[in-house]
Amino acid sequence: MELTLERIEQKVGAQTHLYPLDLTLVPRAVTVLLGATQAGKTTLMRVMAGLDVPSKGRVLADGVDVTGLPVRERNVAMVYQQFINYPSMTVANNIASPLKLRKEANIEARVNELAAKLHIEPFLQRLPAELSGGQQQRVALARALAKNAPLMLLDEPLVNLDYKLREELRDELSQLFASGQSTVVYATTEPTEALLLGGYTAVLDGGELLQYGPTAEVFRRPRSLRVARAFSDPPMNLVKATAQAGGMLLPGDVSLAIALPATPDAALTLGVRAGALRVHQRAGDVALPGIVELAEIAGSDTFVHVETKIGELVAQLTGVHVFTLGEAVTLYLDPRQAYVFDAPGNLLVAPQVN
Asked: What pTM was estimated for this model as a whole?
């Protein structure tokens, strides 16, 4: 399905949930709706599904205006944060329910195939209440996949699962989406999840669509500070700076040599992703000495918070590193990995090296 939203706006009373936006989803691809809580992801998804009618604008499915068409008359599959299964039906019958409605042949074979892909074959004859939360969400996903709808909407389907289950299901979903023919919309608050799912990403903030494009491109070239903040985990390091001959002047009289376009305003913001900071120097790096304020080990990475003369910076270091609070440490930055934003927050310079 090619789904097009034309000047969609959603208001409830005096409150605006979605500001006017245009969006055409790439058919048979995954589009991630990325944004913080209350960014407008669920509201937008409900409009796409036909659960809500927009205050203004049109929804087109393959060129046909379906704006007022209710969800029951659309071929859409949905999976929510809270797994929803038929409690009185076995797992097998839950998965088979959309197949039976369409009176398909070889229902048992299709149920077994989906159960195998989602690793729930041993539970086919059980009731949902007899399963763990992760297993129940797999059943809900299998039933949605069985519908084989041209549009599949997933509203943070993994958010209520533990870390290990999220990792497993995310990998499985990426493979299932790649092998299917559905246009998939997947809402998440996690930038890492958007990167892992790939495809395309629409960044939302406060009900506004800020940017849409291939996920890697949106990540590498965020159009504005708002996009950069939404698409950074941990948050991008941001430092106020001023333009000077040959580059930028940072707090503490630190100079950064970087080619800037002509700007009417000397006020700038330097953006540095945590993964671009290192503790080992390379040729051309700028040294940023400081004091360790906090060090956290998360999975296979270490996050170290360092107070430097340009401000507090967070570095994401691969591997397990041991730091002592108050320890002197020097962070190094390659100017080619820096972002520069102008005074209104628009992107001026993106990294030459990622």
From this structure: 0.91
